[in-house]
Design brief:
It is built from 13 helices and eight strands. By secondary structure, the protein is mostly helical. The protein folds into two domains: about 180 residues, Cytochrome c-like domain (Cytochrome Bc1 Complex, Chain D, domain 2, Orthogonal Bundle), CATH 1.10.760.10; about 200 residues, no CATH class. α6 packs across α10, α11 packs across α13 and α12 packs across α13.
Protein backbone atom coordinates (compact mmCIF):
# COMPACT_ATOMS: atom_id res chain seq x y z
CA UNK A 1 0.00 0.00 0.00
CA UNK A 2 1.40 3.40 -0.99
CA UNK A 3 1.45 6.03 1.79
CA UNK A 4 1.97 9.71 1.10
CA UNK A 5 1.68 12.97 2.99
CA UNK A 6 -1.51 14.87 2.23
CA UNK A 7 -2.11 18.53 3.22
CA UNK A 8 -5.82 18.84 2.47
CA UNK A 9 -8.77 16.85 3.73
CA UNK A 10 -10.35 17.40 0.33
CA UNK A 11 -8.09 15.26 -1.85
CA UNK A 12 -8.55 12.44 0.27
CA UNK A 13 -10.67 10.15 2.18
CA UNK A 14 -7.95 11.02 4.64
CA UNK A 15 -8.54 10.69 8.35
CA UNK A 16 -6.25 12.36 10.80
CA UNK A 17 -5.14 9.86 13.41
CA UNK A 18 -4.35 11.06 16.92
CA UNK A 19 -0.58 11.01 17.38
CA UNK A 20 0.06 10.05 13.77
CA UNK A 21 2.16 12.06 11.33
CA UNK A 22 0.79 10.37 8.20
CA UNK A 23 -2.46 10.72 6.35
CA UNK A 24 -3.76 7.87 4.23
CA UNK A 25 -4.96 8.99 0.81
CA UNK A 26 -8.17 7.83 -0.80
CA UNK A 27 -6.17 6.34 -3.65
CA UNK A 28 -4.43 3.91 -1.28
CA UNK A 29 -7.47 2.67 0.64
CA UNK A 30 -10.66 1.11 -0.72
CA UNK A 31 -14.05 1.98 0.76
CA UNK A 32 -14.41 -1.16 2.87
CA UNK A 33 -11.02 -0.56 4.48
CA UNK A 34 -11.89 3.11 5.07
CA UNK A 35 -15.13 2.16 6.83
CA UNK A 36 -13.39 -0.45 8.98
CA UNK A 37 -10.59 1.89 10.01
CA UNK A 38 -12.82 4.88 10.85
CA UNK A 39 -15.34 2.76 12.74
CA UNK A 40 -12.50 1.35 14.83
CA UNK A 41 -11.32 4.88 15.65
CA UNK A 42 -14.84 6.21 16.33
CA UNK A 43 -15.08 5.22 20.05
CA UNK A 44 -11.75 6.91 20.82
CA UNK A 45 -12.81 10.28 19.46
CA UNK A 46 -16.34 9.98 20.91
CA UNK A 47 -14.89 9.35 24.37
CA UNK A 48 -12.48 12.27 23.93
CA UNK A 49 -15.36 14.65 23.14
CA UNK A 50 -17.68 13.40 25.89
CA UNK A 51 -14.87 13.69 28.44
CA UNK A 52 -14.30 17.30 27.35
CA UNK A 53 -18.02 18.13 27.61
CA UNK A 54 -18.30 16.59 31.07
CA UNK A 55 -15.23 18.51 32.27
CA UNK A 56 -16.59 21.79 30.91
CA UNK A 57 -20.30 21.66 31.65
CA UNK A 58 -23.08 20.44 33.90
CA UNK A 59 -25.10 18.58 31.26
CA UNK A 60 -28.01 17.60 33.51
CA UNK A 61 -31.60 17.90 32.33
CA UNK A 62 -32.72 20.77 34.58
CA UNK A 63 -35.59 22.76 33.05
CA UNK A 64 -36.56 26.24 34.16
CA UNK A 65 -39.88 26.37 35.98
CA UNK A 66 -42.70 27.52 33.73
CA UNK A 67 -40.49 28.50 30.76
CA UNK A 68 -40.83 26.74 27.42
CA UNK A 69 -39.94 27.22 23.79
CA UNK A 70 -42.67 28.15 21.31
CA UNK A 71 -44.07 24.62 21.00
CA UNK A 72 -43.62 23.60 24.61
CA UNK A 73 -40.13 22.12 25.03
CA UNK A 74 -38.70 23.14 28.44
CA UNK A 75 -35.99 25.78 28.45
CA UNK A 76 -32.92 24.66 30.40
CA UNK A 77 -32.07 26.63 33.51
CA UNK A 78 -28.90 27.79 35.19
CA UNK A 79 -25.25 28.36 34.35
CA UNK A 80 -23.78 25.11 33.00
CA UNK A 81 -20.16 26.16 32.45
CA UNK A 82 -18.03 24.86 35.33
CA UNK A 83 -16.02 27.36 37.35
CA UNK A 84 -12.28 27.02 37.92
CA UNK A 85 -11.62 25.29 41.23
CA UNK A 86 -12.11 27.63 44.20
CA UNK A 87 -13.47 30.52 42.12
CA UNK A 88 -16.88 32.21 42.03
CA UNK A 89 -18.48 34.21 39.24
CA UNK A 90 -18.33 37.31 41.43
CA UNK A 91 -14.60 36.85 42.00
CA UNK A 92 -13.94 36.41 38.27
CA UNK A 93 -15.97 39.51 37.42
CA UNK A 94 -13.82 41.56 39.77
CA UNK A 95 -10.63 40.60 37.92
CA UNK A 96 -9.17 42.23 34.82
CA UNK A 97 -8.70 40.20 31.61
CA UNK A 98 -4.95 40.26 32.28
CA UNK A 99 -5.42 38.80 35.75
CA UNK A 100 -7.75 36.06 34.51
CA UNK A 101 -5.24 35.17 31.79
CA UNK A 102 -2.24 35.26 34.13
CA UNK A 103 -3.88 33.01 36.73
CA UNK A 104 -5.50 30.73 34.10
CA UNK A 105 -9.00 31.34 35.46
CA UNK A 106 -10.91 31.52 32.18
CA UNK A 107 -13.75 28.95 32.56
CA UNK A 108 -13.21 25.87 30.41
CA UNK A 109 -16.75 26.17 28.99
CA UNK A 110 -15.97 29.63 27.63
CA UNK A 111 -13.17 28.41 25.35
CA UNK A 112 -14.15 27.63 21.73
CA UNK A 113 -16.06 24.35 21.44
CA UNK A 114 -14.47 21.87 19.02
CA UNK A 115 -16.39 19.86 16.45
CA UNK A 116 -17.26 16.32 17.70
CA UNK A 117 -14.15 15.17 15.78
CA UNK A 118 -12.41 18.37 14.82
CA UNK A 119 -9.68 16.82 12.70
CA UNK A 120 -12.31 15.10 10.52
CA UNK A 121 -14.90 17.89 10.53
CA UNK A 122 -17.89 17.90 8.21
CA UNK A 123 -21.66 17.97 8.62
CA UNK A 124 -23.18 15.95 11.44
CA UNK A 125 -26.82 15.82 12.51
CA UNK A 126 -28.69 15.23 15.79
CA UNK A 127 -30.40 11.85 15.99
CA UNK A 128 -34.05 13.07 15.81
CA UNK A 129 -33.31 14.69 12.43
CA UNK A 130 -31.66 11.51 11.18
CA UNK A 131 -34.57 9.35 12.34
CA UNK A 132 -37.34 11.53 10.89
CA UNK A 133 -35.67 12.07 7.51
CA UNK A 134 -35.14 8.32 7.22
CA UNK A 135 -38.73 7.58 8.25
CA UNK A 136 -40.26 10.03 5.77
CA UNK A 137 -37.91 9.76 2.78
CA UNK A 138 -35.65 6.72 3.28
CA UNK A 139 -32.53 8.92 3.11
CA UNK A 140 -30.02 8.18 5.88
CA UNK A 141 -27.99 11.07 7.34
CA UNK A 142 -26.00 8.76 9.64
CA UNK A 143 -22.21 9.02 9.49
CA UNK A 144 -20.33 5.79 10.09
CA UNK A 145 -17.34 7.59 11.59
CA UNK A 146 -18.89 9.79 14.30
CA UNK A 147 -22.07 10.78 16.11
CA UNK A 148 -23.48 14.10 17.32
CA UNK A 149 -22.19 15.17 20.73
CA UNK A 150 -24.63 17.38 22.71
CA UNK A 151 -27.61 15.95 24.66
CA UNK A 152 -31.08 16.51 23.22
CA UNK A 153 -32.47 18.49 26.17
CA UNK A 154 -29.91 21.24 25.45
CA UNK A 155 -31.01 21.58 21.80
CA UNK A 156 -33.90 23.42 20.09
CA UNK A 157 -37.30 21.78 20.03
CA UNK A 158 -37.82 19.35 17.16
CA UNK A 159 -39.52 19.70 14.82
CA UNK A 160 -39.78 23.44 15.35
CA UNK A 161 -42.94 25.37 14.44
CA UNK A 162 -42.91 27.47 11.27
CA UNK A 163 -44.30 31.01 11.24
CA UNK A 164 -44.70 32.91 7.96
CA UNK A 165 -44.33 36.67 7.60
CA UNK A 166 -47.05 36.58 4.94
CA UNK A 167 -49.58 34.53 6.93
CA UNK A 168 -49.17 35.19 10.67
CA UNK A 169 -52.83 34.26 11.09
CA UNK A 170 -52.00 30.60 10.40
CA UNK A 171 -49.72 30.11 13.39
CA UNK A 172 -47.55 27.01 13.00
CA UNK A 173 -47.93 26.09 9.33
CA UNK A 174 -45.89 22.91 9.81
CA UNK A 175 -48.74 21.44 11.91
CA UNK A 176 -46.17 19.76 14.14
CA UNK A 177 -44.41 17.93 11.31
CA UNK A 178 -40.85 18.05 10.00
CA UNK A 179 -41.23 19.49 6.50
CA UNK A 180 -39.63 17.27 3.84
CA UNK A 181 -40.08 16.48 0.16
CA UNK A 182 -42.68 13.94 1.26
CA UNK A 183 -45.13 16.45 2.76
CA UNK A 184 -44.27 20.03 1.77
CA UNK A 185 -46.86 20.25 -1.01
CA UNK A 186 -49.78 19.23 1.18
CA UNK A 187 -48.67 21.53 4.01
CA UNK A 188 -47.94 24.66 1.96
CA UNK A 189 -50.03 24.50 -1.23
CA UNK A 190 -52.61 26.90 0.19
CA UNK A 191 -50.11 29.27 1.88
CA UNK A 192 -47.41 29.77 -0.79
CA UNK A 193 -47.57 30.78 -4.44
CA UNK A 194 -46.11 28.48 -7.14
CA UNK A 195 -42.75 30.30 -7.21
CA UNK A 196 -42.42 29.97 -3.44
CA UNK A 197 -43.42 26.30 -3.53
CA UNK A 198 -40.64 25.67 -6.03
CA UNK A 199 -38.18 27.51 -3.80
CA UNK A 200 -39.24 25.36 -0.85
CA UNK A 201 -38.87 22.21 -2.95
CA UNK A 202 -35.29 23.19 -3.77
CA UNK A 203 -34.52 23.93 -0.11
CA UNK A 204 -35.70 20.39 0.68
CA UNK A 205 -33.90 18.67 -2.19
CA UNK A 206 -30.69 16.81 -1.29
CA UNK A 207 -27.57 17.58 -3.31
CA UNK A 208 -24.05 16.10 -2.98
CA UNK A 209 -21.97 17.31 -0.04
CA UNK A 210 -18.45 16.47 1.16
CA UNK A 211 -19.49 13.71 3.58
CA UNK A 212 -22.71 12.64 1.83
CA UNK A 213 -22.20 11.83 -1.85
CA UNK A 214 -21.46 8.91 -4.18
CA UNK A 215 -17.64 8.88 -4.01
CA UNK A 216 -15.72 6.27 -2.05
CA UNK A 217 -14.31 8.73 0.47
CA UNK A 218 -17.80 9.67 1.71
CA UNK A 219 -18.86 9.17 5.33
CA UNK A 220 -22.20 7.46 4.66
CA UNK A 221 -22.32 3.71 4.18
CA UNK A 222 -24.45 3.83 1.02
CA UNK A 223 -23.85 5.99 -2.06
CA UNK A 224 -25.77 9.11 -1.16
CA UNK A 225 -28.00 11.76 -2.75
CA UNK A 226 -26.56 14.34 -0.38
CA UNK A 227 -28.02 16.88 2.05
CA UNK A 228 -30.65 19.59 1.76
CA UNK A 229 -30.56 23.15 3.08
CA UNK A 230 -33.36 22.37 5.50
CA UNK A 231 -31.57 19.30 6.86
CA UNK A 232 -29.62 21.69 9.12
CA UNK A 233 -32.11 24.57 9.11
CA UNK A 234 -34.94 22.17 9.94
CA UNK A 235 -38.36 23.79 9.43
CA UNK A 236 -36.61 27.07 8.66
CA UNK A 237 -35.19 27.19 12.17
CA UNK A 238 -32.24 25.15 13.50
CA UNK A 239 -31.78 21.66 14.86
CA UNK A 240 -28.23 22.54 16.07
CA UNK A 241 -26.56 20.43 13.38
CA UNK A 242 -22.88 21.28 13.24
CA UNK A 243 -20.00 21.57 10.78
CA UNK A 244 -16.65 23.38 10.52
CA UNK A 245 -16.23 26.61 8.58
CA UNK A 246 -14.76 26.30 5.11
CA UNK A 247 -13.05 29.68 4.92
CA UNK A 248 -10.31 29.32 7.58
CA UNK A 249 -7.05 27.38 7.38
CA UNK A 250 -5.17 25.53 8.75
CA UNK A 251 -7.78 23.09 10.01
CA UNK A 252 -6.97 23.61 13.70
CA UNK A 253 -8.14 27.23 13.45
CA UNK A 254 -11.48 26.41 11.82
CA UNK A 255 -14.54 27.25 13.91
CA UNK A 256 -17.26 24.81 14.79
CA UNK A 257 -20.47 26.18 13.26
CA UNK A 258 -23.64 26.35 15.28
CA UNK A 259 -26.42 26.26 12.66
CA UNK A 260 -28.23 29.62 12.90
CA UNK A 261 -31.98 29.91 12.67
CA UNK A 262 -33.46 31.18 9.40
CA UNK A 263 -36.21 32.94 11.34
CA UNK A 264 -35.98 36.64 10.60
CA UNK A 265 -33.57 36.29 7.68
CA UNK A 266 -35.58 39.02 5.93
CA UNK A 267 -34.28 41.67 8.36
CA UNK A 268 -30.61 40.52 8.25
CA UNK A 269 -27.91 41.97 6.02
CA UNK A 270 -24.79 39.83 6.56
CA UNK A 271 -24.46 36.11 5.84
CA UNK A 272 -21.91 33.29 5.87
CA UNK A 273 -19.58 32.06 8.61
CA UNK A 274 -17.43 35.18 8.29
CA UNK A 275 -20.40 37.32 7.17
CA UNK A 276 -18.78 38.09 3.82
CA UNK A 277 -22.01 37.78 1.82
CA UNK A 278 -24.40 40.70 1.71
CA UNK A 279 -27.62 38.98 0.66
CA UNK A 280 -29.40 35.71 1.33
CA UNK A 281 -29.20 35.06 -2.42
CA UNK A 282 -25.40 35.22 -2.29
CA UNK A 283 -25.39 32.94 0.74
CA UNK A 284 -27.72 30.38 -0.87
CA UNK A 285 -25.52 30.17 -3.94
CA UNK A 286 -22.32 30.03 -1.89
CA UNK A 287 -23.59 27.17 0.29
CA UNK A 288 -24.03 24.87 -2.69
CA UNK A 289 -20.78 25.82 -4.41
CA UNK A 290 -18.37 26.05 -1.48
CA UNK A 291 -19.69 25.49 2.06
CA UNK A 292 -21.00 22.04 1.17
CA UNK A 293 -17.43 21.11 0.19
CA UNK A 294 -15.33 22.81 2.88
CA UNK A 295 -14.40 25.69 0.58
CA UNK A 296 -12.63 23.37 -1.87
CA UNK A 297 -13.76 23.73 -5.53
CA UNK A 298 -11.67 20.73 -6.64
CA UNK A 299 -13.47 18.48 -4.17
CA UNK A 300 -16.78 20.04 -5.20
CA UNK A 301 -16.29 19.14 -8.86
CA UNK A 302 -15.26 15.57 -8.06
CA UNK A 303 -18.09 14.89 -5.64
CA UNK A 304 -20.87 16.46 -7.71
CA UNK A 305 -21.36 20.15 -6.99
CA UNK A 306 -24.83 21.46 -7.78
CA UNK A 307 -24.57 24.82 -9.58
CA UNK A 308 -27.75 26.75 -8.89
CA UNK A 309 -29.18 29.08 -11.53
CA UNK A 310 -29.60 32.57 -10.08
CA UNK A 311 -32.83 33.66 -11.71
CA UNK A 312 -34.97 30.52 -11.53
CA UNK A 313 -33.56 28.76 -8.46
CA UNK A 314 -31.52 30.99 -6.13
CA UNK A 315 -34.11 33.78 -6.04
CA UNK A 316 -36.94 31.30 -5.45
CA UNK A 317 -35.05 29.71 -2.53
CA UNK A 318 -34.14 33.09 -1.07
CA UNK A 319 -37.74 34.30 -1.22
CA UNK A 320 -38.87 31.34 0.89
CA UNK A 321 -36.11 31.91 3.43
CA UNK A 322 -37.28 35.51 3.75
CA UNK A 323 -40.74 34.25 4.75
CA UNK A 324 -39.61 32.46 7.93
CA UNK A 325 -40.76 34.69 10.78
CA UNK A 326 -39.76 35.04 14.41
CA UNK A 327 -42.03 33.25 16.89
CA UNK A 328 -44.77 35.21 18.66
CA UNK A 329 -43.62 37.30 21.64
CA UNK A 330 -46.87 38.33 23.36
CA UNK A 331 -45.15 40.54 25.95
CA UNK A 332 -43.55 42.81 23.32
CA UNK A 333 -45.22 45.89 21.85
CA UNK A 334 -45.01 47.01 18.21
CA UNK A 335 -41.62 48.62 18.89
CA UNK A 336 -40.18 45.37 20.24
CA UNK A 337 -40.14 46.63 23.84
CA UNK A 338 -41.93 45.14 26.82
CA UNK A 339 -45.57 45.98 27.31
CA UNK A 340 -45.63 47.13 30.95
CA UNK A 341 -49.13 45.73 31.41
CA UNK A 342 -48.00 42.22 30.45
CA UNK A 343 -44.41 41.96 31.70
CA UNK A 344 -43.30 40.94 35.19
CA UNK A 345 -41.30 43.24 37.42
CA UNK A 346 -38.20 41.06 36.90
CA UNK A 347 -38.56 41.23 33.11
CA UNK A 348 -38.91 45.02 33.25
CA UNK A 349 -35.81 45.31 35.42
CA UNK A 350 -34.03 43.03 32.93
CA UNK A 351 -35.05 45.25 30.02
CA UNK A 352 -33.62 48.31 31.82
CA UNK A 353 -30.37 46.41 32.39
CA UNK A 354 -30.29 45.23 28.76
CA UNK A 355 -30.41 48.79 27.44
CA UNK A 356 -28.39 50.21 30.32
CA UNK A 357 -25.76 48.76 32.64
CA UNK A 358 -25.37 45.42 30.79
CA UNK A 359 -24.77 47.26 27.46
CA UNK A 360 -26.49 44.51 25.44
CA UNK A 361 -28.63 47.01 23.54
CA UNK A 362 -25.58 48.72 22.02
CA UNK A 363 -25.21 45.76 19.62
CA UNK A 364 -28.75 44.36 19.93
CA UNK A 365 -31.19 47.28 19.50
CA UNK A 366 -34.95 46.76 19.32
CA UNK A 367 -37.15 45.76 17.59
CA UNK A 368 -35.25 42.73 16.25
CA UNK A 369 -32.30 43.00 18.63
CA UNK A 370 -29.52 43.13 16.06
CA UNK A 371 -27.50 45.98 14.59
CA UNK A 372 -26.66 43.89 11.49
CA UNK A 373 -22.95 44.50 12.11
CA UNK A 374 -19.82 42.57 13.07
CA UNK A 375 -18.11 42.91 16.44
CA UNK A 376 -14.82 41.55 17.71
CA UNK A 377 -15.17 40.53 21.37
CA UNK A 378 -11.39 39.89 21.64
CA UNK A 379 -11.96 36.98 24.02
CA UNK A 380 -8.30 36.03 23.56
CA UNK A 381 -7.57 38.77 26.13
CA UNK A 382 -8.61 36.27 28.80
CA UNK A 383 -6.57 33.16 27.93
CA UNK A 384 -3.45 31.77 26.32
CA UNK A 385 -3.59 29.97 23.00
CA UNK A 386 -4.22 26.28 23.64
CA UNK A 387 -5.07 23.18 21.61
CA UNK A 388 -8.36 21.55 22.61
CA UNK A 389 -9.34 18.27 20.93
CA UNK A 390 -7.82 19.31 17.62
CA UNK A 391 -9.12 22.91 17.79
CA UNK A 392 -6.62 25.70 18.50
CA UNK A 393 -8.22 28.16 20.87
CA UNK A 394 -7.00 31.53 19.65
CA UNK A 395 -8.62 34.72 18.40
CA UNK A 396 -12.15 34.24 17.03
CA UNK A 397 -12.12 37.53 15.13
CA UNK A 398 -15.29 39.51 14.33
CA UNK A 399 -18.61 37.71 14.72
CA UNK A 400 -22.08 38.69 13.61
CA UNK A 401 -24.65 40.27 15.90
CA UNK A 402 -27.39 37.68 15.65
CA UNK A 403 -31.01 38.75 16.28
CA UNK A 404 -32.20 37.98 19.81
CA UNK A 405 -35.89 37.81 18.94
CA UNK A 406 -37.06 34.33 19.89
CA UNK A 407 -33.65 33.55 21.40
CA UNK A 408 -34.97 31.07 23.98
CA UNK A 409 -35.86 28.77 21.05
CA UNK A 410 -32.27 28.60 19.77
CA UNK A 411 -29.90 26.95 22.25
CA UNK A 412 -26.95 26.44 22.47
CA UNK A 413 -25.45 29.91 22.07
CA UNK A 414 -22.59 31.86 20.48
CA UNK A 415 -21.35 31.06 16.97
CA UNK A 416 -19.81 27.70 17.98
CA UNK A 417 -22.38 26.44 20.54
CA UNK A 418 -20.03 26.89 23.51
CA UNK A 419 -22.76 28.35 25.77
CA UNK A 420 -25.52 25.84 26.65
CA UNK A 421 -28.03 28.25 28.24
CA UNK A 422 -28.99 31.91 28.34
CA UNK A 423 -27.62 31.97 31.89
CA UNK A 424 -24.24 30.95 30.44
CA UNK A 425 -24.50 33.71 27.85
CA UNK A 426 -25.13 36.32 30.56
CA UNK A 427 -22.12 35.13 32.59
CA UNK A 428 -19.92 35.06 29.47
CA UNK A 429 -20.78 38.61 28.41
CA UNK A 430 -20.60 39.87 32.00
CA UNK A 431 -16.91 38.91 31.93
CA UNK A 432 -16.18 39.87 28.32
CA UNK A 433 -17.82 43.28 28.57
CA UNK A 434 -16.72 43.92 32.15
CA UNK A 435 -20.12 45.24 33.24
CA UNK A 436 -20.04 43.65 36.73
CA UNK A 437 -23.66 42.58 37.07
CA UNK A 438 -24.82 41.39 40.49
CA UNK A 439 -26.53 37.98 40.88
CA UNK A 440 -30.11 39.42 41.02
CA UNK A 441 -29.37 41.54 37.94
CA UNK A 442 -28.23 38.48 36.00
CA UNK A 443 -31.47 36.71 36.92
CA UNK A 444 -33.56 39.66 35.71
CA UNK A 445 -31.58 39.90 32.46
CA UNK A 446 -32.20 36.21 31.72
CA UNK A 447 -35.91 36.74 32.40
CA UNK A 448 -35.99 39.56 29.83
CA UNK A 449 -34.16 37.49 27.21
CA UNK A 450 -36.70 34.69 27.65
CA UNK A 451 -39.48 37.20 26.96
CA UNK A 452 -38.06 38.12 23.55
Amino acid sequence: MRIRLCRSWSVKGAALLAGSTLLVSAASEDFAALVTRLQQEKPTFAKRQQTLLAERYDLADRPAAGVTMSKGKPVQDGVRARLPKGATWEQLAALSPEEIKRDKLWPAGFYPLPHPHHEAGGMIFPQPQIDEIKRQTGRDLTRFDLDYDLPQHLLPEFPAPIYLTTRPDLGDVSKGQLVTLANFESLFKDALNPKQLEGLRLLLTPFPQAQFNATEDRRALAAHQGVACLDCHANGHTNAATHTVGDIRPNEHRHRIGTPSLRGVNIQRLFGSQRAMKSVEDFTEFEQRAAYFDGDPVQAQRKGVNILERGSQVHFMAEVQDLFDFPPAPKLDVFGRLDKAKASEGELRGEALFFGKARCGECHPAPYYTDNLMHNLRVERFHDEVMINGRKSSADGPIKTFPLRGIKDSPPYLHDDRLPTLDDAVEFFNLVLGVKLRAPEKKDLVAFLRAL
